[in-house]
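User: I'm new to structure prediction. If I give you an amino acid sequence, what do you actually give back? Let's try with this one:
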Amino acid sequence: MVGKRIGFTLCGFLLFSGCRGVSVMSKAEQASYRVVESHGHIELRDYPAMIVAETEVAGERKQAIQVGFRAIAGYIFGGNQSSEKIAMTAPVLQGVTGDHWKVRFVMPSGKSLTNLPKPDDPRVQLLDLPAGRFAVIRFSGTAGDETVEKNAGQLLDFIRSRPLNPIGLPVYAFYNPPWTLPFLRRNEVMMEVVE
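Assistant: Good question. You get back a string of structure tokens that encode the predicted 3D arrangement of the chain. For your 195 residues, that looks like this:
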């Protein structure tokens, strides 16, 4: 009986902790978009132009996102010319270019290239991305290589079944902090498309 109580209490604590992680991230501003079409866990979305902080990291995907995240987090936590703290947003974006991974944070709305401070770290660049239409597949759980590749394949199958052409390679989007329970996580694979 005591073992059952401890197990129940532990499960309750873990569930609370996971939900707390989601609520913390839900307070972060998320990149805005408009849903054009919805097909189950796949959507076509229009994203407006946005400013991102980006860094490129060589190596394996998992290691690259950790290194890239730390570099850009340093920038938004005050590692810039004016020591300004910039609000964290969601999602964190990751995409491959050759043998490098690009890691990006979307800058908060109201920020522009003219009012954002220059990063202290030369690896961090500020970019103005144009508006675009993206096909997006959403999934929960852990986002290991096999899982993201499987979802990218499903998304590509969807794109090919419609009068759409993909532009470039998939981009992975992660919305939650690492302590969030896997079944509560929001992960996405995105591909820019044109009709």
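You can read the tokens as a compact description of the fold. Here is one thing that stands out. Confidence is low (pLDDT under 50) at residues 2-25.
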